[in-house]
Amino acid sequence: MHPTLPLLLPHKASTDANFCGFTVPKDSQVLVNVWAIGRDPSIWENPNKFMPERFLGSGIDVKGRNFGLIPFGAGRRICPGLPLANRMLHLMLGSLLNAFDWKLEGGISPSEINMEEKFGLSVQMAEPLQTIPVLVLE
Ligand code: HEM
After folding, report:
1. Which family does it belong to (predicted)?
2. pLDDT tens string 3-37
3. Which of 72, 90, 91 to mutate for ligand 1's pocket (most ligand atoms within 8 Å of CB)?
4. Where are the alpha helices (DSSP H) in 15-115?
5. Which stretches of the chain are DSSP H helices?
6. Is residue 54 part of a domain?
């Protein structure tokens, strides 16, 4: 899993809270490590493997109902742009795949793509993906 914001946005506890036996004092800053949740082998089989087909028929989505996968957060502060992002991503990806045939620069095969990540406030590919679009739709 490759969440855009590996620690979501900083949250603050509005009251003292008990979380899995730990006391979270009022006013603590709380960071949710969704990157680590996505790499937890007790939740995901082969967590480091890029396997989008793992979600086929699983019923798991990114809408904040499955806490193993919350790239948009969850609860009251869930990303309000989720419905827009969800529509735009499908539209953009569908249009790009429909209009172009994609080749990898240097003639490398898809399995050779370096999926390592570079960390910051957001996660990026350590080695940017270099692709060559070949127009198939006039
Ligand atoms: C793929 C695209 C996007 C991803 C992965 C994403 C992810 C996130 C995440 C992880 C948060 C923090 C949630 C939390 O801390 O619990 C967030 C908050 C937010 N996002 Fe997005 N977002 C995306 C697109 C958008 C778009 C398109 C908009 C606006 C049009 C938007 C507006 C916001 C706003 C305003 C917040 C702050 C909400 C709050 O703090 O109450 N996001 N987003």
Report:
1. Belongs to the cytochrome P450 family.
2. 999 999 999 999 999 999 999 999 999 999 999 99
3. 72
4. 34-38, 82-99
5. 34-38, 82-99
6. yes
Tokens of 32: 């949710």
Could you tell me if residue 134 is inside a domain?
Answer: no
The two tokens of residue 98 are 């429909």
Each residue's pLDDT tens digit, 71-87: 999 999 999 999 999 99
The total domain count for the chain is: 1
Question: For residue 41, is it within any domain?
Answer: yes
Pocket of ligand 1 (CB under 6 A): 4-5, 8-9, 71-73, 77-81, 84-85
| pLDDT band at 61; cut points 50, 70, 90 | very high
Residue 66 has pLDDT above 90, yes or no: yes
Say if 111 falls within a structural domain.
Answer: no
Residue nearest to atom 8 of ligand 1 (CA): 72
27 CA distance to ligand 1 centroid (A)?
22
Encoded amino acid at 118, one letter: K
Distance between CA atoms of 62 and 117, rounded to whole angstroms?
21
The minimum-distance atom of ligand 1 relative to the CA of 11 is 15
